[in-house]
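INTERNAL AUDIT FORM
Audit reference: QA-55
Scope: verify that the stored structure record matches its stored sequence.
Auditor: D.O.
Record contents follow.
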Amino acid sequence: MSRMPLPYNPKVLELFRNPKNLGKMEDATVVAVAGNPACGDMITFYLKISDQEVIEKASFESYGCAANIATASIVTEMIKEMKLEDAWKITWKSVAEAVGGLPSIKFHCGILAVGALKRAIRAYCKNKRLSPGWLPEELSFEEKQALEEEELSRILSKRMRTEE
């Protein structure tokens, strides 16, 4: 049985083949992970944040499909020189739009990328003991979705081990 290739647009394919800001950042201010290698998609974001709460540099490492790499890449481009408050406002829909659209089965890649970004911002604020008014106490949609995806992966992994 053959699989039909997903209808990725040229921008997604270009970012997949030539991702921007790929790689570990040794001097990152904060690092955050979203995803689970058991499900096939994982993103680690590295952010270098100034004392004025501006994202000076962003990079990522990814384990996943073309959409996973493309959305992580575009997020790092979108947030450069952006204040944390403005970066927090990025949504998975704006990421999907920035890459020229995603097949519906790949929307979760944009959600995961934004979930990792928001985890990084939240971790930075927690580490600095900051409570900015723009940062909600409740997790964002993207953070919740990342948690749900990780929990589902844990459950499936556990089931697969018990069946072996």
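Auditor finding: record pair retrieved intact. Residues 158 and 164 are 10 Å apart (CA to CA).
Action required: none
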